[in-house]
Amino acid sequence: MKEVIEKLKEKGKTIATMESCTGGGLAYTITNVEGASDVFHYGAVTYSNEAKISQGVDSKIIEKYTVYSEEVAKDMSKKISLLANSDYGVGVTGKLNRPDKNNPNGNDNQVFFSIYDREKDEYYVTNLFVDRPTRELNKLLIIESIEKELLTLLNQKVYIRK
Fold first, then answer.
1. Nearest to 89 by CA among 40, 49, 135
2. Inside any domain, residue 162
3. What DSSP assignment string belongs to 38-58?
4. Domain coverage including residue 75
5. Coil, strand, or helix at residue 146?
6. Residue ranges in 85-127 assigned as alpha helix (H)
7. How far is CA 48 from CA 20, 72, 118, 128, in A?
8. pLDDT in tens, 133-153
9. Is 118 within 8 Å of 90 (Cβ atoms)?
10. Tens of pLDDT along 34-90?
């Protein structure tokens, strides 16, 4: 994550996160880097639907697509960027290693994350299936994937998503 922080500093950009299934692990990883406070504006852990809604996520999007969807990850990333007045917002939602009795829809072990670029008003979305034996290892896999996508975005002048 050190390289992500350095690239954000070089570009004069900032970042904020809204996390669900990673439980703040992304914010934790970012803030472990010395100097992260120069670029990290805000981190929200929104484990429940109510918490997401309190941070600005549209309840109608949750109702229409389920909380475990690309659309909710996108709304999370945009809302946290706007709330924190940051250049990039990251939203992550998904199920890890167990069914959710409050949200029975959606695939087990499927995660969606979105990086929102406020300047371009564009989303970079990833749909990821995690298969590691523990929640902790799956969280690490998700965070590593987000870090890789952030580096791709920050290292290219034009970001083309396959």
1. 40
2. no
3. GTEEEEEE--SHHHHHHTT--
4. 2-155
5. helix
6. none
7. 8, 13, 25, 20
8. 999 999 999 999 999 999 999
9. no
10. 999 999 999 999 999 999 999 999 999 999 999 999 999 999 999 999 999 999 999
- pLDDT digits 0-9 by tens, 91-141: 999 988 666 666 666 667 899 999 999 999 999 999 999 999 999 999 999
Check: CB of residue 127 under 8 Å from CB of residue 146: no
Tell me the two tokens of residue 68.
């475990």
CATH number of the domain that residue 77 is part of: 3.90.950.20
Output phi, psi for 108, to 5 deg.
-65, 145
**CA nearest to 110, candidates 125, 124, 123:** 125
Residue labelled with tokens 């954000």:
8
> Angle at which helices 2-11 and 135-155 pack, to 10 degrees?
30
